Amino acid sequence: MTPAARLQAAIEIVDAVIGAARAGGAAADTLIQRYFRERRYAGSKDRRAVRELVYAAIRRAGEVPASGRAALMGLAADRPELRVLFDGSAHGPAPIGAGDVGAPASALPAWLAEKLSVHLDRSEFPALLERAPLDLRANRLKTDRDTLLAALPGARAGEHGLDAFRLPEGTQVDLLPEWQQGLFEIQDEGSQLIVQACGAQPRMVAVDLCAGAGGKTLALAAAMRNEGRLIACDVDRGRLAGLAPRAERAGAMIEQRLLDGGRERGGLADLIGAADLVLVDAPCSGSGTWRRNPEARWRLTPATLERLTKLQAQVLAIGADCVKPGGTLVYATCSLLPEEGPVQIDRFLGLHADFRADALAFGCRSGEGVMLTPAQDGTDGFFVARLLRA
């Protein structure tokens, strides 16, 4: 592909991303894969170059651009070498006309910037969209971090997590024998800190109420040394199905329980008041993961946020029912929006006098919990609160 053809491909993909964001369709990563699946002639260098253009244009445009062409024209305003590629060649984009307007640069949609500025300085906004590092977690069921640091070229210890380390960007993790042997997992360091906040111990009864594909569940299994009872729950069959092969590779002993959405308590009857630990990693806006999914900020609307906060309150109440007296409830969201963090916990504590907040030794204080941010901690953005039941 010529440089102009690469630019035109990026325009077409961003058009698809914009359409999907408006209609609730597939993520950018998926759309990029689909695009090149239909264009086998594109080599690996072409795919990499187009992908970089797509994500650069998405990260630059806070508001949803009018079109992929407007998004890439906006990027060309910052990168003059791209402007000359609007040359009208056979496979390139049409020349930029006098009336063509590129998308303006802004980190966030205005309504989200206003909400986030409650807890974040606006100087931190660009860090929310920077490329995320490759964070990993040593699997204590099979090895330790020091062994992996010695074995893996370029590996360095994380700054916060006890088992956290990083590999150079672009490392093909799935080709490493250590990965194939289940010696480590890909997991953001902030996500690892959430598990540390749980304080999981052997012989506990622990419930991961919104387990998804089980990244945090696997870390809980390692902390518990496969001793005790660990139950991974979710209402999404497809997401939960991803846990079994991961658990087998990691050597983790985990029960799985598919819950019926809207009737979760019925599927948890035997666990009501019985768990030493319940982790509620609640469904959320994902505003803390925009480094990985920058187009997600185009998808989020005030109505969606309101729906999510109601769901979070419901799931948190269900989790609280499972905690036994003296047990621990950990609430977490990969979000930096106050409605999904400190406001949610304030509401919960106002309704549950038998719970109290417990201090955490990381992050920045946010209400009765803490926040981790890309700018301050080098992690994805998270809110975490640890609550103890009397």
UniProtKB/TrEMBL annotation:
Single GO BP term: methylation
Binding site for S-adenosyl-L-methionine: 234, 260, 281
Keywords: Methyltransferase, RNA-binding, S-adenosyl-L-methionine, Transferase
Chain segments annotated as coiled-coil in the UniProt record: none
GO function terms (MF aspect): methyltransferase activity
SAM-dependent MTase RsmB/NOP-type domain ranges (all copies): 117-390
EC nos: 2.1.1.176
Pfam families recorded: Methyltr_RsmB-F
Family matches, as InterPro entries: MeTrfase_RsmB-F_NOP2_cat, MeTrfase_RsmB-F_NOP2_dom, RCMT, SAM-dependent_MTases_sf
Catalytic center residues: 334 (nucleophile)
Family: Belongs to the class I-like SAM-binding methyltransferase superfamily. RsmB/NOP family.
Name of the molecule in the record: 16S rRNA (Cytosine967-C5)-methyltransferase
